């Protein structure tokens, strides 16, 4: 990942190559921090207000105070990066251990270069058991305690895939490490319910809004893996990858169907 710009609370714009977090910051020591990522189109972040709201929700559940001025930090970083297609990531942490002074950071980075290649061929997913009963303690929170998510991605790549799908006990489908999971049966789109502790993705909400206008029903529920594996089409949604078709999950194969392409076009129309 190449950083284009960085702004830090109390410091303003900082050279991205300079240190920005203390070694005794609780986000580093204990993974106690919240973050948000949104796509930036020609210098403009998509639905930034909703991401800021969710940042506050995650921080509150972690007991982290959001310092004032996070939106201003984002504006500084975006202005420094210029009118680019990129991503914006916001962090809030409790700050240095025992200081009582929370920290906020806003960084703008380059998008992965292979997104459209992946979209054209569809991504390969593998299932990874999370070993929890939903909803679990950190379900629905974007926390810097992200080790399990990254280990799952590493495991997927070790098995020759692009990404993972988390399963709760009894093979209940949850979400990906950084995505919401969707599948289509006929004219109905299915996705795990938020009550399971999956993230209330901002792009997920776009899919829910756009689907009826495209002729699809949306059903949210509790689904076991066999229901996903038997689908007509599968795709994921996330801020950076947007709507991404799925070509395989474990041994199951999927044709790249019409829903993912139509929803991606609807998302781009909104942006």
Keywords:
271 residues; alpha+beta; D-amino Acid Aminotransferase, Chain A, domain 2; 2 domains; nine-stranded mixed β-sheet; six-stranded antiparallel β-sheet
Question: What order do the helices and strands come in, and which of them pair?
Answer:
Elements lengths: L2 E6 L3 E3 L11 H5 L3 E8 L2 E2 L2 H15 L7 H12 L4 E8 L9 E7 L5 H7 L1 E7 L17 H12 L4 E6 L3 E2 L6 E6 L2 E5 L9 H9 L6 E5 L3 H5 L3 E6 L3 E8 L2 E2 L4 H13 L1
Parallel strand pairs: 7-8, 7-14, 11-12
Antiparallel strand pairs: 1-2, 1-6, 3-4, 3-5, 5-6, 8-9, 10-11, 10-13, 13-14, 14-15
Overall structural class, as computed from helix and strand content, comes to alpha+beta
Biggest β-sheet strands, sense, barrel = 9 strands, mixed
Helix content: 25-40%
CATH architecture of the largest domain: Alpha-Beta Barrel
Query: What top-tier CATH class of the largest domain fits best?
Result: Alpha Beta
What's the β-strand tally?
Answer: 15
What spatial form do the alpha-carbon principal axes imply?
globular
Order of helices and strands: EEHEEHHEEHEHEEEEHEHEEEH
Radius of gyration: 19 Å
Q: Which stretches are low in confidence, meaning pLDDT under 50 for 5 or more residues running?
A: none
Write down the overall mean pLDDT.
96
How many helices? The count is 8
The H-level CATH homologous superfamily of the largest domain, spelled out, is D-amino Acid Aminotransferase, subunit A, domain 2
What is the domain total for the residues? 2
Distance between the termini: 23 Å
Estimated share of beta-strand residues: 25-35%
